[in-house]
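Why predict the complex rather than its parts? Because the way molecules touch one another can change local conformation, and only a joint prediction can capture that. The input here totals 526 residues.
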Amino acid sequence: MSTVHKDALLTVSGVGFDYEGIPVLDNVDLSVNRGEFVALVGPSGCGKSTLLNLISGLLSPGKGTISANGISDSSGRLGNVSYMQQRDLLLPWRTIAENCQLGMELRSISADVSKARVQELAKSFGLFDVLNHMPWQLSGGMRQRAALMRTILLENDVLLLDEPFGALDAITRTALQKWLLSVLVRNDKAVLLVTHDVEEAILLADRVMIMASEPGRIIAEVDVRLSESSIESSFTSPAFVELRKGILALLERQEVSL
Amino acid sequence: MINYLGGMWQAAKNWSPAILTALALILIWEFVVWFLDIQRWLLPPPTIIFQELIDSIGLLSRHAGITLLEIIMGFAVSLMIGVALASGIVWSRTMERSIYPIIIASQTIPIFTLAPLLIIWVGTDIFSKVIVVVLFTFFPLVVSLVTGLRSVDSESVDMFRTLGATNAQIFRKLMIPTALPNFFAGMKVAAVVSVIGAVIGEWVGASAGLGWLMKLSGPQFQTARVFAAIVVLSVVAITLFSLVVAIEKWSLRKYPSILNQAKNLGES
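Output of the joint prediction:
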């Protein structure tokens, strides 16, 4: 089980959540430090997304406590935890730039300032040339990147990603995973990624937490830090293959089908 | 410029069948009236109606102005009531349960039968007509707005909440923009029925307006004038409708059109 670190930006301890009398999450503990990338893997319906909803403040836990960047009050975390949902949810009547400015607009930051920040970040997101396009004019991969940019522009220290590449084709997904690593390299955020893709978890994360369902709980934790060289040749390196085998074995032991 | 001409050509191509059909019907009407020698007080030919339209243009436009004023005032009041009611219905379960069924049930009452009561209560001045217009127009506005505001998906609301949005911000920046296409559908219906509402109000009790003029001209066998008033009313209705369409086009200029959405679905 995870230990609570002193420099943890995000701490979840003993969290339980029931939905209409049915336990969805039971006694979940986890923590993410500054600069750390943690992935949560588990079968569909194991409560991964519910956990993110609890951390973001959309839901309040029935049991236990959650603290993100020092805020333990659920509604207080709304707006102070960056959360990217599965669907891009770009507003169809706004340009990409206007969509990305939304968070700052809601905080009454002046349009000039927010526009400048969007333009500054758009280059590394590969969106500079499409800032004035409408969402329907963009490919699925570009829309996901725009959604991530909208989320990151909130400039919160805790970043939650709920299957950000789940709806994309394999080639786009791999390209975006590598790109995400390059964007988040040497970042000072605490990132928690939810995915059912074991390879994605190993590639992106420093630690992988494995969840089981009914009720959702964490059953194992694996350190998956790969050396720089193995990221380059990621999927075929012996270290990568070993890790994947180990994690899949842990998941299968719970007699759940992925 | 080429685009503009292309657009005009496209518009002409789209509208020409309707215009040609209307012209054909008018020609047949003219021909039948002359050929069968129908009395002019019974059915005047289009040429006589056109003549009346030109001769009485001052009279017609004076009364059209009064009818238009009733429509605009009624529409404005309806818009305020409609937005307030729809927001309340979407916002509060209690209001939804207590008011929405009554609003729907109220539409089974023939509004025409309410007009005489309104004359008794409010009098024959402009306000009784404004109320009839409101009764006709608030229903399509409320229903379309409620439908539109409800079409907001919960995930988008969650996204706004995680960005730290207040309820007022969610309403203004998410719910209203989402409801706009439905709202304009209701506005178009309301624009057309508002004309009917004003005429019915005038028919029951008034001292001016196109409805009153028609009611007065009929028994005097000034049938051509009745037809001329109908032509003016149609022009008013079509103008109002076109105005709403123009505002809709401008307001929704950034929204993906049906064509774009189809293309989008094809891609993903």
